[in-house]
Amino acid sequence: MKRYQNQLKEKGIIQSMSRKGNCLDNAIIENFFGILKSELFYLKKYTSIDQLKNEIDEYIKYYNNDRNKSNLNKMSPIQYRAHYYQN
């Protein structure tokens, strides 16, 4: 969207895109946000932005360190990287 691109340019922000209109670029992060919303955000009401930020920080730690994923051979992301990317 040209107007959005102009606003980014005015503020000195470089837009991150590989190709025009390739929605697959965001698939991984969109999947993560979907999981975060269903496992955290939709389950309770938050009394402040700070509370929500703190809980998101804790969730990200849990997601990376403790939450096992079937497509990562039932390992957490950190366990998977440690196992498969050792020198």
TrEMBL record:
Integrase catalytic domain: residues covered: 1-85
InterPro entries referenced in this protein's UniProt entry, alphabetically: Integrase_cat-core, RNaseH-like_sf, RNaseH_sf, Transposase_IS3/IS150/IS904
A Pfam short name: rve_2
Source taxon at top rank: Bacteria
GO terms, biological process: DNA integration
PROSITE patterns found in the cross-reference section: INTEGRASE
GO MF, one annotated term: nucleic acid binding
PANTHER family linked to this entry: TRANSPOSASE INSF FOR INSERTION SEQUENCE IS3B-RELATED, TRANSPOSASE INSO FOR INSERTION SEQUENCE ELEMENT IS911B-RELATED
Name of the protein this chain belongs to: IS3 family transposase
Species, as recorded: Flavobacterium soyangense
Source taxonomy: Bacteria, Pseudomonadati, Bacteroidota, Flavobacteriia, Flavobacteriales
